[in-house]
Amino acid sequence: MNTDEPAAALLPQETHALCVSQEFTDDFNVLLAHNDTLSFLKTVPDRTARLVVSSPPYNIGKPYELRMKLDRYLDWQREVLRECVRVLKPDGSLCWQVGNHVNAGEVFPLDVFFVPIGQELGLRLRNRIIWYFEHGLHAGKRFSGRYEVVLWFTRGDSYVFNLDPVRVPQKYPGKRYFKGPNKGKLSGNPLGKNPGDIWRFLESEWDSGIWDIPNVKWNHPEKTSHPAQFPVELVERLVLALTRPGDVVLDPFVGVGSSVLAARLHGRRAVGVDITEAYVEIAKERVTALHRGTLRRRPMGTAKYHPTGNERVVQRPMEWDTTS
Ligand SMILES: C[S@@+](CC[C@H](N)C(=O)[O-])C[C@H]1O[C@@H](n2cnc3c(N)ncnc32)[C@H](O)[C@@H]1O
Q1: Rg (the chain; Cα; Å)
Q2: pTM here?
């Protein structure tokens, strides 16, 4: 992990727990703004956030977006991203979670367009994470879309990256070296393995110890009236790996506040802006529910490790559950 700037001191939990403002102010644990994102971002000082994370509109005609020509959409997104880069700390990260733009049945994978835009703005791509899930629309004239992408960029070559808080269970945690100087020692990291760059949901493996992240459909505990929420646990993994306690996490298209919740669950400060008032209201309610301990959510890391007794190597008698 490389860090060139210390995290700001975390404000006491009770101090301005939730601040609602059209503009940026520095006295908050959670700052929610009902505003156009570019207007809001222009009020945010340079180098404020350790992590900018968002799922922008995909320009596919959802109720919350104006559908425009792809070139115009990308020009607008470039301007938003330029502001996001300006407000990032030098060792900060930007994560853009995107799917496909579809026009007259033709598919335009948005990550293909966003990678060169990020590079043009001086960002460096660290991972193109595939988020795979089983649920979604069933296509009639092409294969059904079953993944989206998280582009993880950093602003520089020195950046915050903490693997330990996001490790997942080893498939064979008791496996040992059988020869050489380390003979008899565990061959894998006892804290678990790197989660890799394919994050998946397989309903059939729900209880089998696979560390999965389902998308938010009607039976998901986090579902609200928003048509395109991302799951809190998807952002939790990014928050834990790419920031430290007290850091600012900013979402320029915050919707119903999923990334704000992920940040607060782990003691980070959170800023979110959305143009749709109804979503900002729901985000406020969810933040309040979080502070009261009544938030409905699917906790990260509930995939427990249950030995079956038929494993090929000795398994550690432990459960994997990082919820705290
Ligand atoms: C894909 S959704 C984000 C959902 C969010 N990740 C969540 O979990 O709730 C995109 C959001 O962008 C917002 N939006 C669209 N145009 C905007 C603009 N010009 N400024 C701010 N927000 C905007 C929409 O209201 C919508 O909530």
Answers
A1: 20
A2: 0.85
Vertex 234 angle, CA 127 and 223, to 5°: 145
Locus of tokens 């340079």? 46
The CB of 273 under 6 Å from ligand 1? The reply is: yes
Q: Is 241 in the pocket of ligand 1 (CB under 6 A)?
A: no
| pLDDT score at 318 | 42
Nearest-angstrom CA–CA distance, 262 and 217: 18
pLDDT at 120: 98
Closest residue CA from atom 12 of ligand 1: 253
Q: Are 24 and 45 in contact (CB under 8 A)?
A: yes
Query: 201: pLDDT confidence band, cut at 50, 70 and 90?
Result: low
Give distance in angstroms: CA of 82 to centre of ligand 1: 17
Q: Is the CB of 276 under 6 A from ligand 1?
A: yes
The fold adopted by the segment(s) 19-159+195-292 is Rossmann fold (3.40.50)
